[in-house]
Amino acid sequence: MLINEEDVPALARGCAVLGTGGGGDVRTGALAARRAIRAHGGVPLVRLADLPDDALVLPLSGIGAPTVSHEMIHGEDEPERVAKEVERIFGRPPAAVMTSEIGGSNGVAPVAWAARLGLPLLDADGMGRAFPEVQMVSMYVAGLPADLVIMSDVAGNVVTIRPVDGLWSERMARAVCVASGSSALMADYILPAVQARGAVIEGTVTRALAVGRATERAADPLRALQDELAARRLITGKLTDVERHTTGGFVRGAAVIEGTGADRGRTLTLELQNENLVALEDGRVRAIVPDLITVVDTETANAVQTEGLRYGQRVTVLAWPCDPLWRTRKGLETAGPAAFGYDFPYVPVEELA
């Protein structure tokens, strides 16, 4: 398959939904993708099975606070600088680009990065959604060493980090990101295809396209999206309070939705760290990370990112199951409630909602 300019809107819509509020505003990533495709042509979408065992897979993602990346857009030279550093270290160039997280702009922008590098895009990612921290990827859960991180920023800096493990990769990369203004381009878990097999979540670009296309020309976009995701509807209502602040390279805060119509009298609170982490109603958990929680416009079913939440918006909150990898012991240790400081035990959304 070739990702062309006409595919970008559906991909952006799907990535916004899978971003659970984070991953960056898809509009900037979509603009970059369309511009790069016009300049360099469509991007081949390849499966892991299509690559030779020794082909280097280059996972790329923006790191930082979505509120910053919305205003400080990545430069066009950042992927080239990262790719050159990869070739210097490994002695050969990367063979394919992979998005580290399929959610948000980080799922769309790799189309632009792949186009500029003249490389195919791998139909896979490391999350199946978006997560805020560097170690929260399937490669870490699979036990692969996180011993190399390469970062570049809009000022032209290139930083190579040799962390001792995944947790240190987060600490070190976050410090560099904050020094770069809380927004940078990052490559980590650069690995040959043979190691990627079984360590990445495959088919997620195709999945994002399907999610994005589900609402095209639908008579009831919200119902079409809910059916495509097999999602639970937690509440439909109006945003009545939004608290958000940027600190330490993250956006943190909460949003309150008061129910309308059939949900009148109910109130749902979302707590967030870049992404929506937990949905609470009267102190009771309705859905919790690592399951996906997304806020969408009630009329259009377009996802609303955390930086786009505004008082008075009419929204619906949907929740659905995460990839099974995140429900393993190691997956929950890495990105379950306790990883974000919650005392709540993890209960699958299909049991809670």
UniProtKB/TrEMBL annotation:
This is DUF917 domain-containing protein. The lineage of its organism: Bacteria, Bacillati, Actinomycetota, Actinomycetes, Streptosporangiales. Residues 166-349 form the S-Me-THD-like C-terminal domain. It comes from the Bacteria. It comes from Nonomuraea typhae. Transmembrane segments: none annotated. Residues 6-161 form the S-Me-THD N-terminal domain. Pfam families: S-Me-THD_C, S-Me-THD_N.
